[in-house]
Write a structure and sequence with these properties.
Shape: globular
InterPro entries: AA_transpt_TM
CATH architecture: Up-down Bundle
Largest sheet: 2 strands, antiparallel
Order of helices and strands: HHHEEHHHHHHHHHEEHHH
Number of strands: 4
CATH superfamily: Amino acid/polyamine transporter I
Distance between the termini: 70 Å
Strand content: under 5%
Structural class: mainly alpha
Helix content: 55-70%
Number of domains: 1
Transmembrane segments: 30-49, 56-76, 115-139, 159-175, 181-205, 273-295, 307-332, 382-412, 432-460
CATH class: Mainly Alpha
Subcellular location: Membrane
Strand order of the largest sheet: 1-2
Main location: membrane
Region (Disordered): 1-23
Length: 473
Amino acid sequence: MTESWSERSVEEKESMGFAEDDGHTRTGTVWTATAHAITAIIGSGVLALPWSVAQMGWILGPFTLLACAIVTYYTANLLSDCYRTPDPIHGKRNHTYMDVVSSCLGPRNVFLCAIAQYALLWGTMVGYVITAATSMMAIDRSNCFHYKGRNAHCNTSGNLYLILFGIVELVLSQFPNLEKITVISLIAAAMSFAYSFISLFLCIFKLASNHTFQGTILGAKIGGTVSLSTKVWYAFQALGNIAFAYTYSMLLIEIQDTIKAPPPENKTMKRASLHGIGVTTIFYVSVGCIGYAAFGNKAPGNILTGFYEPFWLVDIANVAVIVHLIGAFQVYGQPIYAKYENYLSKKWPESVFFHKVYMLALPFCKPRAFRFTLCKLILRSAFVVLTILIAMMLPFFNAVVGLLGAIAFWPLTVHFPVSMYMAQAKIRRGQWQWVVLSFLSAIALLVSVLAAAGSVVDIIHRLKHVTMFKTKL
């Protein structure tokens, strides 16, 4: 019996001149895919988890962390089956999330997906600027307390730090594409693990020094400055924070596209998702719950801002956050640059502004010349400046993170994967699978709406009590 293409080994395919059915050689395994998945999931959202658990308490907090993990894993499996269409084993490959949407749902849904995906990308960039500035201010403040004492006046303004971060990103934004900043991306991934583990260690140390568990069954108590409505809006916002921490689906197809076959890519990706989300969930539950046990209902919005000693370790963690976000800003920004530059260059194919390449000599660097177009130089710089200005106007870490989670959770994590799976599997309206998946999508939509409402209300409330362009910690 003749072997099918998918049953041939990589060596056999390479001996025939190419490794896979589309001509690309893929070497990814379940372990490389797991590493990519963990790197994609773990990010600055982990810093908001103790605060999020504090808004819900000891029952709803851990339950929400686990529920989001289960939903993310389930929909990731559905999405894995859509990597090849119309058959998950022998169908045509889809190299990106939008390719899957196009193949399964058509061009109209591609437009809707693009709105959600690029809104999330840009919103995340704004959130990263705020987080980086917060970490810079935290370093300044912890050093102030260390040298002047805990009773010293150590309030610090973040505008200078926002501007410094923006200057670095202005330079990095001129790199032509993601391939040219691979080293920065790898360093950023390593830094995310560094500050995440330091945060967990600091929380464990504080919990041990307290000699008791903090926190309550229902979370933050009503009274004083916390009214019933404030508690409700904060709880909704916490939903968005937790959902944002598990953001993963929009990168899953790109990860799956690196996996070699056999076994089938969807089978390998499902194992990688189980390992990646499983490890991340254990870590998230540990940080969220131990952080809450250590700080109780007074858990800070960014857990690292709650520590001042040992100041050198706190500084290392905050530096790791800053380095991570410098690279992550570009990872999220480069797809946006590529999208509008492609569109504009096709719209005006003869324009010097978009097509003429200029060269600037660089005597001490390789390559020896910096190549650029006026479009890239001006529009990318303007985009970075606009992002920094928005971050200055909305310096609210938790509210912005909650809003990003709301934007990502329903459309990108649940709705599109569920809809694409039902289209590919030909699940008809009224079948039990259709009912279950539609109910899951409806619940996710409700969570996103509530999370968005809580975050928007908090942003509006804070804007009434803040001076524009006066970011303080």
